[in-house]
Design goal:
The chain has 440 residues and is an all-alpha fold. It is globular. It is found in: Membrane.
Length: 440
Amino acid sequence: MTAIRPFEVTHRGILAIAVPMTLAYLTTPLLGLVGMGVIGRLGDVALLGAVALGAVIFDFVFATFNFLRSGTTGLVAQALGADDRAEIQATFYRALIVAFVVGLGVILLSHPILTVALAALGGSPAVQAATTEYYSVRVFSTPFALANYVMLGWLIGLGRSTLGLFLQTFLNGLNIVLNIVFVLGLGWGIAGSAWGTTIGEAVTAILGLTLVVSRLDRAHRPSLAQILDRTQIIRMVAVNRDIMIRSFSLLFAFGFFASRGAKMGDVVLAANAVLMNFFLVGGYFLDGFAAAAEQYAGRAIGARYKPAFLRSMKLTLGWGYVLATIAALCFWFGGPYLIDAMTVNPAVRETARHYLFWTALTPLAGVLAFEMDGIFIGATWSDDMRNMMLLSVVLYLAVWAVAEPLWGAHGLWLAMIVFLSARGFTLAWRCRARTRAAFA
């Protein structure tokens, strides 16, 4: 049996991971806000809708394979807790191989993926044409984006959040600059936004690999046999399979939300797209502490040290609720100004204001889910993550089926709030039993 390896969990330690990762994650929705704002300045509702649908498609693709980030974090953190330095590196190489294979597969299947996505999401002919133009360029970013997922997950697992902050900030900063230059400067339209994102992912992947590989400990470099170890590969596949199902279910919920908005017209679709960027800001605002929960929970599982596990859960949840309250207040009071900054279309502005209340509730409804996700990812309790997500999706659809016919888009937003809340409460319910079993 693995020896118990005690370690301390403090506010300072949590913040040392959470603050850099919060800043890093916040640059991602900032990219979405700038991208939406840049396209919004063109004044074409169809282009705004295309950005929204294009984002949903790539959210499906990338979140389906988000296990390359989250699965890597949990496995690396547990190897760190067990002080298995060779396995730390072996996990990195295994995940990187998968990232490039999957990325190339998405490129090869790009046409059928787009065809199915457009059929499922709907939208007007103008929106679908612009979405096709955007997708046809951005799909080539996939291998690089997934490699960036691996590097970020590996760094979080080791608690090296400062380097993760640098790479994430570099990625999104470069994307923002290129989007502005290509769309507004060179007049490339929606294709310019796609090119900016693709080039940004590729440059960051090359830079990240250079920095990470140069920091690997040569004294504990794994052999090819260890990297391709059958037992570890089966374990990674099992964890990744469950996280993939969970991630796909999550993106189904968001895709369904976008699809229902599209059926209500281009204005509602565009307004919901603007407001969902607020939700993403709130989510990434909370994800820094979820990242801290991943690292400490995984390390505690690897070290077999229950006190560290319980304290990390207590501290990350406490900080999460504080930040969720701040985010909700910022959205409520600052939302109208952000809406005006993101679009010049009067109809979209008015509609977005009409549903702003729901967006302000999303951080409070989702905070427990974000923090529980971090705990379960770090502990690699992926089967429960999968099951509780599927249960929450069923509840989401049940509420939607009743609420939308009664209240329209308000009913759709209500279903989303219920979905976010259900994820958190169901995971918290399962956490007790899993904790008892893990440290028995």
